[in-house]
Amino acid sequence: MADDGDLKENICAFARQGQGEVALVIVPRFLARLTQMRDVPLGTEVWGDSSVGIPSEIIEQRFSNIFTGERVDASERDGKNRLLLGQIFANFPVAMLEGI
C-alpha cells in the first residue's frame, strides 16, 4: 500500500482481499519521534495530512475498524483513493479495517 505525507515512513500497512472480503492492517512504526508529542500517537495533531493509499484492486470506499468500531471513509487525492492516518488513528494506535 502506498503512503503519502510527512510521516509516510512511520507506518507499515498491507491489504488482503479474498472471497469477497477486504482487510487493511495499518500500524505505526518508529514511534520515538512521534511520541515526543504525546504518550500515544493519536489524531491529526500527530499525523497531520499523512495518508495511506488504497490499492486500485480494492473497490471499497468505506471501512470499519474492528478494534474501535469507528467508520473510516476514503477520499481522493491526486487521482488515488486514500485514508487519512489522523482519522484511522483517532482513538487507537493500530488499525485493522474491514470493507463495509
What can you see in these coordinates?
- The protein is mainly beta.
- The protein is about 15% helix and about 40% strand.
- It contains three helices and nine strands; from the N terminus they run βββααβββββαβ.
- The protein has a five-stranded antiparallel β-sheet with strand order 2-3-9-5-6, with no helix packed on it. Strands 1-4-8-7 form a four-stranded antiparallel β-sheet.
- It is globular and about 40 Å long.
- The two termini are about 20 Å apart.
- Which strand-content bin applies to the residues? 35-45%
Number of helices: 3
Give the fraction of residues assigned to helices: 10-25%
Q: What integer is the average pLDDT? A: 86
CATH class: Mainly Beta
Unreliable spans are none
**Domains (count):** 1
Q: What's the N-to-C terminus distance? A: 19 Å
Strand order of the largest sheet: 2-3-9-5-6
- General form: globular
| CATH domain fold name | Immunoglobulin-like
Radius of gyration: 13 Å
Multimer state: single chain
Key attributes of the depicted protein:
mainly beta; globular; five-stranded antiparallel beta sheet; 13% helix; Immunoglobulin-like
Secondary structure blueprint with pairings:
Blueprint: E1 3-4, E2 11-18, E3 21-28, H1 31-35, H2 44-47, E4 51-53, E5 62-65, E6 71-73, E7 75-77, E8 80-84, H3 85-88, E9 95-99
Antiparallel strand pairs: 1-4, 2-3, 3-9, 4-8, 5-6, 5-9, 7-8
